[in-house]
Amino acid sequence: MHIAPFPQTNEWKDDGMREDISRHLLQEMNSRRPAVHCLTNTVVQALTANMLLAVGAIPSMSSDIAEVAHFTKSANALLVNIGTLDGDLKNSIKAAIGAARDHNIPWIFDPVFIDRSEPRAAYAMELLSLGPALIRGNRGEIGLLGGNPADLARKTGAIVAMTGVTDIVTDGSTEITLEGGHELMSLVTGIGCAGTALLGACLAIVPAEERLQAVAAGLSLLGEAGEKAAAEATGPGSFAALILDKIYQISQSSLQERKENE
Protein backbone atom coordinates (compact mmCIF):
# COMPACT_ATOMS: atom_id res chain seq x y z
CA MET A 1 0.00 0.00 0.00
CA HIS A 2 1.34 3.42 -0.99
CA ILE A 3 1.96 5.77 1.94
CA ALA A 4 1.50 9.24 0.46
CA PRO A 5 2.49 11.98 0.25
CA PHE A 6 6.09 11.34 1.33
CA PRO A 7 8.15 14.52 1.56
CA GLN A 8 11.18 15.16 -0.59
CA THR A 9 14.53 15.11 1.24
CA ASN A 10 14.71 18.89 1.56
CA GLU A 11 11.30 18.92 3.26
CA TRP A 12 12.27 16.71 6.22
CA LYS A 13 13.28 19.79 8.22
CA ASP A 14 9.63 20.81 8.21
CA ASP A 15 8.33 19.60 11.60
CA GLY A 16 4.72 19.62 10.45
CA MET A 17 5.52 17.54 7.36
CA ARG A 18 7.42 14.94 9.40
CA GLU A 19 4.59 14.65 11.90
CA ASP A 20 2.01 14.23 9.14
CA ILE A 21 3.97 11.43 7.50
CA SER A 22 4.68 9.64 10.79
CA ARG A 23 1.02 9.77 11.76
CA HIS A 24 -0.13 8.51 8.38
CA LEU A 25 2.31 5.62 8.70
CA LEU A 26 0.90 4.85 12.16
CA GLN A 27 -2.63 4.87 10.80
CA GLU A 28 -1.69 2.24 8.23
CA MET A 29 0.19 0.23 10.84
CA ASN A 30 -2.78 0.13 13.18
CA SER A 31 -5.04 -0.82 10.28
CA ARG A 32 -2.83 -3.58 8.92
CA ARG A 33 -1.20 -4.78 12.18
CA PRO A 34 2.04 -6.13 10.68
CA ALA A 35 3.73 -9.09 12.35
CA VAL A 36 7.41 -8.60 13.16
CA HIS A 37 9.46 -11.63 14.15
CA CYS A 38 12.30 -10.56 16.42
CA LEU A 39 15.55 -12.44 16.90
CA THR A 40 16.89 -9.92 19.35
CA ASN A 41 18.99 -9.15 22.36
CA THR A 42 17.61 -11.09 25.32
CA VAL A 43 18.10 -8.03 27.53
CA VAL A 44 15.54 -6.03 25.54
CA GLN A 45 12.88 -8.51 24.48
CA ALA A 46 10.10 -7.13 26.70
CA LEU A 47 10.74 -3.50 25.74
CA THR A 48 10.91 -4.46 22.06
CA ALA A 49 7.65 -6.39 22.18
CA ASN A 50 5.89 -3.62 24.08
CA MET A 51 7.02 -0.93 21.64
CA LEU A 52 5.67 -2.94 18.72
CA LEU A 53 2.38 -3.50 20.53
CA ALA A 54 2.13 0.22 21.30
CA VAL A 55 2.00 1.04 17.57
CA GLY A 56 -0.38 -1.77 16.64
CA ALA A 57 2.22 -4.25 15.36
CA ILE A 58 2.35 -7.90 16.44
CA PRO A 59 5.65 -9.14 17.90
CA SER A 60 6.95 -12.70 18.13
CA MET A 61 10.28 -13.78 19.61
CA SER A 62 10.90 -17.52 19.22
CA SER A 63 14.47 -18.48 18.29
CA ASP A 64 13.93 -22.26 18.43
CA ILE A 65 15.56 -23.72 15.32
CA ALA A 66 12.59 -26.08 14.88
CA GLU A 67 10.10 -23.25 14.42
CA VAL A 68 11.95 -20.03 13.62
CA ALA A 69 11.47 -20.41 9.86
CA HIS A 70 7.73 -20.98 10.39
CA PHE A 71 7.40 -17.81 12.46
CA THR A 72 9.42 -15.84 9.92
CA LYS A 73 7.50 -16.88 6.83
CA SER A 74 4.21 -15.94 8.52
CA ALA A 75 5.55 -12.50 9.50
CA ASN A 76 5.72 -9.26 7.54
CA ALA A 77 9.25 -8.35 8.65
CA LEU A 78 12.19 -9.98 10.44
CA LEU A 79 14.46 -8.27 12.96
CA VAL A 80 17.98 -9.64 13.49
CA ASN A 81 19.73 -8.07 16.48
CA ILE A 82 23.03 -9.69 17.52
CA GLY A 83 23.33 -8.09 20.94
CA THR A 84 23.48 -11.45 22.78
CA LEU A 85 24.92 -14.03 20.41
CA ASP A 86 25.50 -17.74 20.93
CA GLY A 87 25.90 -20.72 18.61
CA ASP A 88 22.24 -21.74 18.69
CA LEU A 89 21.09 -18.22 17.88
CA LYS A 90 23.51 -18.02 14.95
CA ASN A 91 21.89 -21.14 13.47
CA SER A 92 18.42 -19.72 14.02
CA ILE A 93 19.38 -16.41 12.42
CA LYS A 94 20.55 -18.12 9.27
CA ALA A 95 17.35 -20.22 9.12
CA ALA A 96 15.16 -17.16 9.67
CA ILE A 97 16.94 -15.09 7.03
CA GLY A 98 16.62 -17.99 4.60
CA ALA A 99 12.87 -18.09 5.16
CA ALA A 100 12.61 -14.31 4.80
CA ARG A 101 14.48 -14.39 1.49
CA ASP A 102 12.36 -17.27 0.21
CA HIS A 103 9.14 -15.39 0.97
CA ASN A 104 10.28 -11.88 0.00
CA ILE A 105 10.03 -10.60 3.58
CA PRO A 106 12.26 -7.64 4.47
CA TRP A 107 14.79 -8.30 7.20
CA ILE A 108 16.41 -5.68 9.37
CA PHE A 109 19.95 -5.96 10.74
CA ASP A 110 21.09 -4.34 14.00
CA PRO A 111 24.85 -5.14 14.32
CA VAL A 112 25.11 -4.45 18.05
CA PHE A 113 28.62 -4.23 19.53
CA ILE A 114 30.47 -5.46 16.44
CA ASP A 115 33.11 -2.85 17.27
CA ARG A 116 33.77 -4.69 20.54
CA SER A 117 34.37 -8.22 19.22
CA GLU A 118 36.29 -9.38 16.15
CA PRO A 119 34.40 -12.71 15.85
CA ARG A 120 31.10 -10.82 16.05
CA ALA A 121 32.26 -8.38 13.38
CA ALA A 122 33.24 -11.28 11.11
CA TYR A 123 29.80 -12.87 11.59
CA ALA A 124 28.13 -9.54 10.81
CA MET A 125 30.04 -9.35 7.55
CA GLU A 126 28.66 -12.80 6.63
CA LEU A 127 25.12 -11.58 7.24
CA LEU A 128 25.60 -8.53 5.02
CA SER A 129 25.81 -10.79 1.97
CA LEU A 130 22.28 -12.09 2.68
CA GLY A 131 20.44 -8.96 1.59
CA PRO A 132 19.12 -6.97 4.56
CA ALA A 133 16.50 -4.36 3.69
CA LEU A 134 17.74 -2.08 6.48
CA ILE A 135 20.93 -1.80 8.51
CA ARG A 136 20.63 0.31 11.63
CA GLY A 137 23.63 1.06 13.84
CA ASN A 138 25.64 3.73 15.60
CA ARG A 139 28.64 5.49 14.06
CA GLY A 140 31.16 2.89 15.22
CA GLU A 141 29.12 -0.07 13.97
CA ILE A 142 28.34 1.48 10.59
CA GLY A 143 31.94 2.61 10.20
CA LEU A 144 33.23 -0.92 10.76
CA LEU A 145 30.78 -2.40 8.25
CA GLY A 146 31.17 0.09 5.45
CA GLY A 147 33.12 3.20 6.28
CA ASN A 148 30.21 5.60 5.91
CA PRO A 149 26.44 5.16 5.53
CA ALA A 150 26.26 5.91 1.80
CA ASP A 151 29.09 3.51 0.94
CA LEU A 152 27.48 0.76 3.02
CA ALA A 153 24.10 1.36 1.36
CA ARG A 154 25.62 1.14 -2.12
CA LYS A 155 27.61 -1.96 -1.16
CA THR A 156 24.62 -3.88 0.22
CA GLY A 157 21.60 -2.38 -1.53
CA ALA A 158 20.08 -1.76 1.91
CA ILE A 159 18.73 1.37 3.51
CA VAL A 160 21.27 2.44 6.14
CA ALA A 161 20.26 4.34 9.28
CA MET A 162 23.16 5.65 11.36
CA THR A 163 21.74 6.93 14.62
CA GLY A 164 23.22 9.32 17.14
CA VAL A 165 22.86 12.99 18.05
CA THR A 166 21.99 13.43 14.37
CA ASP A 167 20.41 10.52 12.52
CA ILE A 168 21.41 9.87 8.92
CA VAL A 169 19.23 7.71 6.65
CA THR A 170 20.41 6.89 3.14
CA ASP A 171 19.93 4.54 0.22
CA GLY A 172 23.35 5.40 -1.17
CA SER A 173 22.18 8.19 -3.42
CA THR A 174 19.70 10.15 -1.30
CA GLU A 175 20.36 11.16 2.30
CA ILE A 176 17.95 12.38 4.99
CA THR A 177 19.25 13.89 8.23
CA LEU A 178 17.10 14.11 11.35
CA GLU A 179 17.51 15.92 14.66
CA GLY A 180 15.53 15.03 17.75
CA GLY A 181 15.26 12.72 20.69
CA HIS A 182 16.76 13.22 24.14
CA GLU A 183 19.90 12.14 25.99
CA LEU A 184 17.82 9.97 28.34
CA MET A 185 17.31 7.63 25.39
CA SER A 186 20.98 6.60 25.75
CA LEU A 187 20.55 5.82 29.46
CA VAL A 188 17.90 3.09 29.08
CA THR A 189 19.06 -0.30 27.83
CA GLY A 190 17.26 -1.29 24.68
CA ILE A 191 15.67 1.95 23.46
CA GLY A 192 17.74 1.74 20.27
CA CYS A 193 17.08 -1.97 19.84
CA ALA A 194 13.35 -1.51 20.33
CA GLY A 195 13.48 1.43 17.94
CA THR A 196 14.98 -0.82 15.28
CA ALA A 197 12.02 -3.15 15.69
CA LEU A 198 9.74 -0.14 15.20
CA LEU A 199 11.55 0.56 11.91
CA GLY A 200 10.93 -3.05 10.93
CA ALA A 201 7.21 -2.51 11.44
CA CYS A 202 7.42 0.55 9.20
CA LEU A 203 9.12 -1.43 6.44
CA ALA A 204 6.52 -4.17 6.76
CA ILE A 205 3.79 -1.93 5.33
CA VAL A 206 5.50 -0.06 2.49
CA PRO A 207 6.83 -1.12 -0.92
CA ALA A 208 10.59 -1.28 -1.45
CA GLU A 209 10.75 2.07 -3.21
CA GLU A 210 9.37 3.85 -0.13
CA ARG A 211 11.65 2.30 2.48
CA LEU A 212 13.96 5.32 2.76
CA GLN A 213 11.12 7.62 3.71
CA ALA A 214 9.47 5.05 5.97
CA VAL A 215 12.67 4.61 7.99
CA ALA A 216 13.05 8.38 8.32
CA ALA A 217 9.43 8.64 9.46
CA GLY A 218 9.95 5.89 12.04
CA LEU A 219 13.06 7.57 13.46
CA SER A 220 11.22 10.89 13.58
CA LEU A 221 8.41 9.24 15.53
CA LEU A 222 10.85 7.68 18.01
CA GLY A 223 12.59 11.01 18.52
CA GLU A 224 9.28 12.80 19.08
CA ALA A 225 8.23 10.22 21.67
CA GLY A 226 11.61 10.52 23.38
CA GLU A 227 11.30 14.28 23.66
CA LYS A 228 7.78 14.07 25.06
CA ALA A 229 8.76 11.35 27.55
CA ALA A 230 11.80 13.31 28.74
CA ALA A 231 9.64 16.35 29.46
CA GLU A 232 7.81 14.35 32.16
CA ALA A 233 10.46 11.87 33.32
CA THR A 234 12.39 12.19 36.57
CA GLY A 235 15.12 9.81 35.44
CA PRO A 236 15.85 6.74 33.27
CA GLY A 237 13.38 4.49 35.08
CA SER A 238 10.35 6.67 34.56
CA PHE A 239 11.55 7.56 31.06
CA ALA A 240 11.50 3.88 30.01
CA ALA A 241 7.81 3.62 30.86
CA LEU A 242 6.93 7.05 29.52
CA ILE A 243 8.41 6.53 26.06
CA LEU A 244 6.08 3.56 25.60
CA ASP A 245 3.17 5.68 26.79
CA LYS A 246 4.09 8.48 24.39
CA ILE A 247 4.48 6.13 21.41
CA TYR A 248 1.07 4.67 22.25
CA GLN A 249 -0.56 8.09 22.68
CA ILE A 250 0.80 9.34 19.36
CA SER A 251 -0.45 6.15 17.71
CA GLN A 252 -3.91 6.46 19.22
CA SER A 253 -4.07 10.13 18.28
CA SER A 254 -3.37 9.19 14.66
CA LEU A 255 -6.25 6.70 14.74
CA GLN A 256 -8.61 9.31 16.16
CA GLU A 257 -7.60 11.73 13.40
CA ARG A 258 -8.41 9.11 10.77
CA LYS A 259 -11.83 8.42 12.32
CA GLU A 260 -12.65 12.11 12.41
CA ASN A 261 -11.70 12.50 8.75
CA GLU A 262 -13.70 9.50 7.50
How does this model look, in words?
The chain has 262 residues and is an alpha/beta fold. It has one domain (12-253): Ribokinase (UDP-N-acetylmuramoyl-L-alanine:D-glutamate ligase), CATH 3.40.1190. Helices cover 53% and strands 13% of the residues. The protein has helices at 15-32, 45-54, 68-73, 87-102, 118-128, 139-146, 149-156, 191-203, 211-232, 236-261, and strands spanning 35-39, 58-60, 77-81, 107-110, 134-137, 159-162, 166-170, 175-179. The chain has an eight-stranded mixed sheet with strand order 2-1-3-4-5-6-7-8, with helices on both faces. Helix 1 packs across helix 10, helix 2 runs parallel beside helix 10 and helix 8 (191-203) packs antiparallel against helix 9. 50% of the residues are buried.
CATH architecture assignment = 3-Layer(aba) Sandwich
Domain unit count: 1
First CA to last CA: what distance? 18 Å
Kindly estimate the percentage of residues that lie in beta strands according to DSSP.
5-15%
Mean pLDDT across residues: 89
Q: Please mark out the parts with pLDDT under 50 across 5 or more consecutive residues, or reply none.
A: 1-12
Number of strands: 8
- Rough shape? globular
Which topology does CATH recognise? UDP-N-acetylmuramoyl-L-alanine:D-glutamate ligase
- Taking Cα atoms only, what radius of gyration do you get, to the nearest Å? 17 Å
The CATH top-level class label: Alpha Beta
Q: Please give the count of helices.
A: 10
Properties at a glance:
262 residues; alpha/beta; UDP-N-acetylmuramoyl-L-alanine:D-glutamate ligase; globular
